[in-house]
Design a protein that fits this description.
Layout lengths: L10 H31 L4 H7 L2 H18 L9 H17 L3 H12 L4 H34 L5 H30 L5 H22 L6 H10 L6 H9 L3 H32 L10 H6 L1 H36 L1 H19 L5 H18 L2 H7 L7 H8 L1 H20 L1 E4 L2 E4 L3 H17 L11
Antiparallel strand pairs: 1-2
């Protein structure tokens, strides 16, 4: 009855709903773009950088299923999802402030304790802060996705996910574009710590707005009945069995998502390093002395700014096509639109693997943004057709395993490949970062092939 009584969302309600994800993506985009330069400056090699990135997949595989299941059973005056949305944002904001200041924090501890390894301490602090940031983003993200079937009617799920895709694109554009814009227009270079403070404020304030403006429906009785019915705790294995028992198509969607996110994270994790080291030809500075770091500092800053511009273009296209993708998917089906979008991303990856022109790189990132808009929305819309009422949080949490799990592959195996594929130029070591796009294109092609075999639920005639 509660599901049948859900009122259709207006455009304003969808914007209020999506604003929190704007802040979430703002924070994550800043972490994507700038974590490489920060950790490399602290001594992280390409392989160690990949290992530090394991924070995302491990917290995603553990935190999201756990928090999703807990939020399904949460009873509080603030609802069952909103406490996790706002709590995750607040804790992440603290870590976002500490992360770029890890060296200063390490120096402070060194003075107090008399330790003589401030560089190692700084890298350890930075790695811990990345883990905290990723864990808190996952704490907020799983219940956020589960909030859609809680408050939005079934027929508007694709549109709701498209608005989230729109927020992801816009949040990323603003996050990535602010520093290059200030440099280009006012000749002011925004510092990395200032950019992270900006991300912390955006995450907290935007999530607070969504929590205030979106009211969860009262489901106390439903949750209490579920507690009564479940006298014994369901194990994680049982949860997985129940998840895959939803429909045979769920396994296909999960496999599609697995290969999709190997391809996606090849770009997300490595693009800034690709730009700095391949396009701007900066050598590996992880073991360089201070003189070498100072010599290449201007090129690193220029490369990082250009990477931000490319991510802004990538996400601007995501922002522009997010709503049209939702409309087209409602008319032609999620599967067809998703396959076409993935193909556009595959073509972009193949171009990135071989071109060295900054203009071409920027254009190809725009093309890849079409696929990103679809990845942010349509797999979730495809899965939502098979979700049972009252299990939204646990289902979305388990589904996140097939987003987080592939990142382990990228953070370990792909990072290892890049670390082994080195070459020497003018006496300096560099790496073939462009290889990540070849691997990514192959995995996206596998995802598109699997998507073609998913049988969606036919829509009832209106």
């Amino acid at each position: 009855m509660e599901e049948n009584n859900l009122k259709k969302f207006t455009a304003v309600q969808f914007l209020n709903f999506a604003l929190g994800f704007f802040g979430l993506q703002f924070a994550w985009q800043m972490r994507i773009i700038l974590s490489g330069p920060v950790t490399e400056g602290l001594g992280a090699s390409p392989f160690l950088y990949g290992l530090i990135w394991l924070a995302g997949p491990f917290t995603g595989m553990v935190v999201q299923p756990l928090i999703g299941a807990i939020s399904d059973k949460t009873i509080s005056p603030f609802g069952r999802r909103r406490p996790y949305l706002l709590g995750g944002a607040l804790i992440a904001s603290i870590a976002l402030w500490i992360f770029p200041n890890s060296a200063k924090v390490a120096d402070f501890f060194a003075k107090i304790t008399g330790a003589h390894l401030p560089e190692l301490t700084a890298l350890l602090i930075a790695a811990i802060m990345i883990w905290v940031i990723d864990a808190c983003i996952n704490i907020a993200q799983g219940p956020y996705r589960a909030l859609i079937p809680d408050v939005v009617p079934q027929e508007q799920h694709s549109i709701a996910n498209s608005f989230i895709s729109l927020a992801i694109g816009l949040g990323s554009v603003v996050a990535a574009g602010t520093a290059p814009f200030l440099k280009f227009v006012f000749d002011y270079q925004m510092s990395i710590p200032a950019q992270f403070i900006m991300a912390a404020l955006a995450f907290t304030l935007a999530m607070l707005w969504t929590c205030i403006t979106i009211k969860e429906h009262s489901i106390r009785k439903e949750v209490e009945l579920a507690h009564t019915a479940e006298k014994q705790e369901i194990s994680f294995v049982d949860s997985l069995k129940n998840f895959f028992a939803l429909s045979p198509e769920v396994s296909k969607i999960c496999l599609m998502q697995f290969f999709t996110w190997i391809g996606t994270m090849c770009l997300m994790i490595n693009f800034t390093q690709f730009v700095v080291h391949t396009i701007y030809q900066v050598p590996d500075l992880s073991a360089a002395d201070e003189a070498a770091k100072a010599f290449f500092a201007q090129a690193v800053t220029a490369g990082t700014n250009f990477s931000s511009v490319c991510f802004a273009i990538f996400n601007l296209i995501c922002f522009l096509v997010a709503i049209p993708i939702g409309i087209f998917s409602a008319k032609f089906g999620n599967k067809k639109v998703h396959i076409i979008s993935l193909i556009s991303m595959i073509l972009a990856y193949l171009g990135l693997a071989f071109v060295k022109s900054p203009v071409a790189v920027a254009a190809l990132m725009g093309l890849a943004g079409i696929g990103w808009a679809s990845i942010c929305a349509l797999p979730f819309a495809m899965l939502s057709q098979f979700i049972k009422k009252g299990t939204e949080g646990s289902v979305m949490g388990i589904f996140n395993i097939f987003i987080a799990g592939p990142q382990v592959f990228v953070c370990t195996f792909v990072a290892w490949i890049i670390s082994k594929c080195s070459f020497v130029v003018n006496g300096n070591i560099n790496h073939h970062w462009e290889y990540v796009f070849v691997i990514g294109a192959i995995c996206l092609a596998a995802a598109a092939a699997i998507a073609a075999n998913v049988n969606e639920i036919a829509k009832a005639d209106e």
